[in-house]
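Protein modeling request. Please complete all fields; requests missing the sequence field cannot be processed.
Requester role: graduate student
Desired output: 3D structure, C-alpha coordinate encoding
Chains: 1
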Amino acid sequence: MAVTDLASVTNQIQKFWAPIFMKELRESLLLGALVNKEYEGEIKAQGDTVYVSQINAPTGQLLTVGTDADSFDTQEVSMTRISVQANKRAVAAFEIQDLAQLQSQLDTQDSELKTSLMFAINKQVNNYLYSLVAPSTSAPDHSIASVTDFNAAQVAATRKLAATAKWGKEKGWYLLADPSYYSDLLNATTLTSSDYGATDAPLIGGEIGMKRFGFNIFEDNSAGILTLSPALAGADVALAFHPDFMHLCMQQAPSFKLSDQHSNKKFGYILSVDMIFGAALGINGNVKHILTYAT
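Delivered output (295 residues):
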Protein backbone atom coordinates (compact mmCIF):
# COMPACT_ATOMS: atom_id res chain seq x y z
CA MET A 1 0.00 0.00 0.00
CA ALA A 2 1.44 3.40 -1.02
CA VAL A 3 1.23 6.20 1.57
CA THR A 4 1.65 9.89 0.82
CA ASP A 5 4.09 11.18 3.40
CA LEU A 6 5.92 14.47 4.01
CA ALA A 7 8.77 13.56 1.68
CA SER A 8 6.30 13.09 -1.16
CA VAL A 9 4.98 16.65 -1.01
CA THR A 10 8.06 18.50 0.26
CA ASN A 11 8.47 20.42 -3.02
CA GLN A 12 4.93 21.79 -2.67
CA ILE A 13 5.46 23.19 0.80
CA GLN A 14 5.81 26.98 0.72
CA LYS A 15 8.46 28.68 2.81
CA PHE A 16 7.96 32.14 4.32
CA TRP A 17 10.07 34.70 6.15
CA ALA A 18 8.99 35.16 9.74
CA PRO A 19 7.13 38.47 10.19
CA ILE A 20 9.75 39.64 12.73
CA PHE A 21 13.50 39.26 13.10
CA MET A 22 15.03 37.99 16.32
CA LYS A 23 17.34 40.45 18.04
CA GLU A 24 21.02 39.57 17.88
CA LEU A 25 22.93 39.19 21.15
CA ARG A 26 25.01 42.36 21.18
CA GLU A 27 27.57 43.79 23.54
CA SER A 28 27.07 47.14 25.25
CA LEU A 29 29.07 50.01 23.77
CA LEU A 30 29.28 52.72 26.43
CA LEU A 31 32.64 54.47 26.23
CA GLY A 32 31.79 56.60 23.18
CA ALA A 33 28.74 57.98 24.97
CA LEU A 34 30.74 59.09 28.00
CA VAL A 35 33.92 60.75 26.70
CA ASN A 36 34.06 64.44 25.77
CA LYS A 37 32.24 65.16 22.47
CA GLU A 38 31.95 68.92 22.65
CA TYR A 39 33.22 69.20 19.07
CA GLU A 40 30.82 66.70 17.61
CA GLY A 41 29.42 68.00 14.32
CA GLU A 42 32.39 70.18 13.36
CA ILE A 43 33.91 67.37 11.34
CA LYS A 44 32.70 67.73 7.76
CA ALA A 45 35.14 65.56 5.82
CA GLN A 46 37.86 63.02 6.41
CA GLY A 47 41.07 64.65 7.56
CA ASP A 48 39.47 67.70 9.21
CA THR A 49 41.10 68.74 12.49
CA VAL A 50 39.70 70.42 15.59
CA TYR A 51 41.63 71.76 18.55
CA VAL A 52 41.05 71.58 22.27
CA SER A 53 42.75 74.42 24.19
CA GLN A 54 43.43 75.12 27.84
CA ILE A 55 44.59 78.40 29.41
CA ASN A 56 47.16 77.59 32.06
CA ALA A 57 46.75 79.45 35.35
CA PRO A 58 49.48 82.03 36.08
CA THR A 59 51.71 81.65 39.13
CA GLY A 60 50.33 84.79 40.80
CA GLN A 61 51.83 86.67 43.74
CA LEU A 62 51.30 87.04 47.47
CA LEU A 63 52.06 90.65 48.53
CA THR A 64 52.21 92.41 51.88
CA VAL A 65 50.40 95.75 52.35
CA GLY A 66 52.84 98.48 53.39
CA THR A 67 55.82 96.52 52.07
CA ASP A 68 55.48 95.52 48.42
CA ALA A 69 51.75 95.66 47.63
CA ASP A 70 51.90 98.88 45.56
CA SER A 71 52.87 97.09 42.34
CA PHE A 72 52.55 93.68 40.80
CA ASP A 73 54.10 91.60 38.05
CA THR A 74 52.40 90.27 34.92
CA GLN A 75 52.86 87.03 33.07
CA GLU A 76 52.45 85.99 29.47
CA VAL A 77 49.31 84.03 28.72
CA SER A 78 50.26 80.35 28.50
CA MET A 79 48.12 77.85 26.64
CA THR A 80 48.14 74.11 26.08
CA ARG A 81 46.28 72.51 23.24
CA ILE A 82 45.83 69.20 21.48
CA SER A 83 44.56 68.43 18.01
CA VAL A 84 42.02 65.78 17.09
CA GLN A 85 42.07 64.70 13.46
CA ALA A 86 39.17 62.89 11.81
CA ASN A 87 41.34 60.32 10.09
CA LYS A 88 39.22 57.24 10.79
CA ARG A 89 36.30 55.90 8.80
CA ALA A 90 34.02 53.26 10.27
CA VAL A 91 32.04 51.44 7.58
CA ALA A 92 29.77 48.40 7.28
CA ALA A 93 27.73 47.13 4.34
CA PHE A 94 25.33 44.41 3.24
CA GLU A 95 24.95 43.03 -0.28
CA ILE A 96 21.37 41.92 -0.79
CA GLN A 97 20.04 39.85 -3.65
CA ASP A 98 16.80 40.61 -5.43
CA LEU A 99 14.58 39.23 -2.68
CA ALA A 100 11.35 41.04 -1.98
CA GLN A 101 11.31 39.88 1.63
CA LEU A 102 14.58 41.66 2.41
CA GLN A 103 13.80 44.63 0.18
CA SER A 104 10.91 45.44 2.50
CA GLN A 105 13.47 45.94 5.27
CA LEU A 106 15.46 48.57 3.41
CA ASP A 107 13.18 51.55 3.83
CA THR A 108 11.48 50.89 7.15
CA GLN A 109 12.24 53.33 9.93
CA ASP A 110 13.21 50.63 12.42
CA SER A 111 14.92 48.37 9.91
CA GLU A 112 16.87 45.58 11.58
CA LEU A 113 19.32 45.73 8.67
CA LYS A 114 20.14 49.36 9.47
CA THR A 115 20.31 48.61 13.19
CA SER A 116 22.83 45.85 12.54
CA LEU A 117 24.97 48.15 10.39
CA MET A 118 24.90 50.90 13.03
CA PHE A 119 25.99 48.42 15.69
CA ALA A 120 28.89 47.34 13.48
CA ILE A 121 30.31 50.85 13.07
CA ASN A 122 29.70 51.77 16.71
CA LYS A 123 31.67 48.67 17.68
CA GLN A 124 34.56 49.83 15.49
CA VAL A 125 34.49 53.23 17.23
CA ASN A 126 34.33 51.59 20.66
CA ASN A 127 37.31 49.33 19.94
CA TYR A 128 39.33 52.28 18.62
CA LEU A 129 38.63 54.38 21.71
CA TYR A 130 39.83 51.57 23.95
CA SER A 131 43.00 51.27 21.86
CA LEU A 132 43.87 54.87 22.87
CA VAL A 133 43.74 54.18 26.61
CA ALA A 134 47.18 54.93 28.04
CA PRO A 135 47.21 55.79 31.76
CA SER A 136 50.24 57.39 33.39
CA THR A 137 52.71 54.97 34.92
CA SER A 138 54.58 57.68 36.83
CA ALA A 139 54.12 57.97 40.57
CA PRO A 140 51.36 57.76 41.50
CA ASP A 141 50.79 54.92 39.03
CA HIS A 142 47.41 55.07 37.27
CA SER A 143 47.78 51.52 35.96
CA ILE A 144 46.99 49.18 38.84
CA ALA A 145 47.80 45.49 38.40
CA SER A 146 47.17 42.26 40.33
CA VAL A 147 43.68 43.15 41.58
CA THR A 148 41.79 39.87 41.83
CA ASP A 149 38.78 41.21 43.76
CA PHE A 150 37.38 44.54 42.63
CA ASN A 151 35.59 45.27 45.91
CA ALA A 152 34.51 48.37 47.81
CA ALA A 153 38.01 48.92 49.20
CA GLN A 154 39.44 48.94 45.67
CA VAL A 155 36.80 51.41 44.44
CA ALA A 156 37.63 53.64 47.42
CA ALA A 157 41.34 53.46 46.57
CA THR A 158 40.53 54.38 42.97
CA ARG A 159 38.48 57.37 44.17
CA LYS A 160 41.38 58.55 46.33
CA LEU A 161 43.75 58.33 43.36
CA ALA A 162 41.31 60.32 41.19
CA ALA A 163 40.92 63.00 43.86
CA THR A 164 44.69 63.22 44.28
CA ALA A 165 44.98 63.79 40.52
CA LYS A 166 42.53 66.72 40.95
CA TRP A 167 39.80 65.46 38.65
CA GLY A 168 37.07 68.09 38.23
CA LYS A 169 33.66 67.03 39.52
CA GLU A 170 31.38 69.20 37.38
CA LYS A 171 31.12 66.56 34.63
CA GLY A 172 31.03 63.53 36.89
CA TRP A 173 33.36 60.54 37.17
CA TYR A 174 32.72 57.20 35.49
CA LEU A 175 33.83 53.64 36.03
CA LEU A 176 33.30 50.85 33.50
CA ALA A 177 33.87 47.30 34.74
CA ASP A 178 33.88 44.07 32.80
CA PRO A 179 31.32 41.41 33.89
CA SER A 180 33.83 39.69 36.18
CA TYR A 181 34.77 42.84 38.10
CA TYR A 182 31.16 44.04 38.07
CA SER A 183 30.12 40.78 39.73
CA ASP A 184 32.70 41.51 42.42
CA LEU A 185 31.01 44.86 43.00
CA LEU A 186 27.58 43.26 43.24
CA ASN A 187 28.92 40.95 45.95
CA ALA A 188 30.15 43.91 48.02
CA THR A 189 27.40 44.62 50.57
CA THR A 190 28.59 48.18 51.22
CA LEU A 191 28.07 48.94 47.52
CA THR A 192 24.75 47.22 46.87
CA SER A 193 22.77 47.27 50.13
CA SER A 194 20.21 50.02 50.65
CA ASP A 195 21.25 49.97 54.31
CA TYR A 196 24.37 51.77 53.15
CA GLY A 197 22.44 54.23 50.96
CA ALA A 198 22.79 52.26 47.71
CA THR A 199 20.48 53.32 44.89
CA ASP A 200 20.53 52.68 41.13
CA ALA A 201 20.25 56.02 39.33
CA PRO A 202 22.44 56.64 36.25
CA LEU A 203 21.15 55.42 32.89
CA ILE A 204 23.42 55.27 29.81
CA GLY A 205 22.49 53.44 26.60
CA GLY A 206 19.81 51.44 28.39
CA GLU A 207 22.28 50.35 31.07
CA ILE A 208 21.36 51.10 34.68
CA GLY A 209 24.40 51.99 36.72
CA MET A 210 25.36 52.41 40.35
CA LYS A 211 26.44 55.73 41.84
CA ARG A 212 29.01 54.86 44.47
CA PHE A 213 32.01 56.63 46.01
CA GLY A 214 31.67 59.50 43.52
CA PHE A 215 31.62 57.22 40.45
CA ASN A 216 28.82 56.38 38.05
CA ILE A 217 29.54 52.66 37.67
CA PHE A 218 28.39 50.61 34.67
CA GLU A 219 28.95 47.07 33.47
CA ASP A 220 30.77 46.97 30.11
CA ASN A 221 30.60 43.59 28.38
CA SER A 222 32.24 44.77 25.16
CA ALA A 223 35.26 43.13 23.59
CA GLY A 224 36.99 46.52 23.68
CA ILE A 225 37.38 46.76 27.45
CA LEU A 226 38.91 43.28 27.63
CA THR A 227 41.78 44.40 25.40
CA LEU A 228 42.97 46.63 28.25
CA SER A 229 44.31 43.65 30.16
CA PRO A 230 48.03 43.40 29.27
CA ALA A 231 47.85 39.63 29.53
CA LEU A 232 44.60 39.58 27.49
CA ALA A 233 43.19 37.37 30.20
CA GLY A 234 39.65 38.03 28.98
CA ALA A 235 38.34 39.10 32.38
CA ASP A 236 38.97 41.29 35.44
CA VAL A 237 39.48 44.78 34.06
CA ALA A 238 38.01 48.20 34.87
CA LEU A 239 38.48 51.74 33.58
CA ALA A 240 37.77 54.77 35.77
CA PHE A 241 37.87 58.17 34.08
CA HIS A 242 36.90 61.80 33.85
CA PRO A 243 35.08 62.51 30.54
CA ASP A 244 37.83 64.93 29.48
CA PHE A 245 40.43 62.16 29.45
CA MET A 246 39.55 61.61 25.79
CA HIS A 247 37.97 63.69 23.02
CA LEU A 248 35.79 62.15 20.31
CA CYS A 249 34.91 64.19 17.23
CA MET A 250 32.54 62.84 14.60
CA GLN A 251 30.09 63.79 11.91
CA GLN A 252 26.64 64.87 13.03
CA ALA A 253 25.13 61.63 11.71
CA PRO A 254 26.28 58.43 10.03
CA SER A 255 25.66 58.34 6.29
CA PHE A 256 23.48 55.56 4.86
CA LYS A 257 23.55 54.77 1.15
CA LEU A 258 21.43 52.33 -0.84
CA SER A 259 22.50 51.49 -4.40
CA ASP A 260 21.30 48.93 -6.90
CA GLN A 261 23.84 46.85 -8.82
CA HIS A 262 22.32 47.18 -12.27
CA SER A 263 25.45 48.95 -13.57
CA ASN A 264 27.39 45.80 -12.67
CA LYS A 265 24.88 43.68 -14.65
CA LYS A 266 23.57 42.22 -11.39
CA PHE A 267 20.22 42.27 -9.66
CA GLY A 268 20.26 43.29 -6.04
CA TYR A 269 21.30 46.09 -3.72
CA ILE A 270 24.16 47.28 -1.54
CA LEU A 271 23.24 48.99 1.73
CA SER A 272 26.11 50.71 3.51
CA VAL A 273 26.71 53.08 6.39
CA ASP A 274 29.87 55.02 7.12
CA MET A 275 31.02 57.63 9.60
CA ILE A 276 34.08 59.87 9.74
CA PHE A 277 35.49 60.35 13.22
CA GLY A 278 38.63 61.01 15.19
CA ALA A 279 39.72 60.68 18.79
CA ALA A 280 42.69 61.53 20.99
CA LEU A 281 43.64 61.68 24.64
CA GLY A 282 42.81 65.04 26.18
CA ILE A 283 45.08 67.52 27.91
CA ASN A 284 46.66 65.66 30.85
CA GLY A 285 44.49 62.76 29.70
CA ASN A 286 47.00 60.20 30.96
CA VAL A 287 46.24 61.17 34.58
CA LYS A 288 42.50 61.58 34.02
CA HIS A 289 41.89 57.84 33.74
CA ILE A 290 42.80 54.84 35.89
CA LEU A 291 43.15 51.27 34.65
CA THR A 292 42.72 48.35 37.04
CA TYR A 293 43.25 44.74 36.05
CA ALA A 294 44.24 41.29 37.27
CA THR A 295 47.33 39.54 35.94
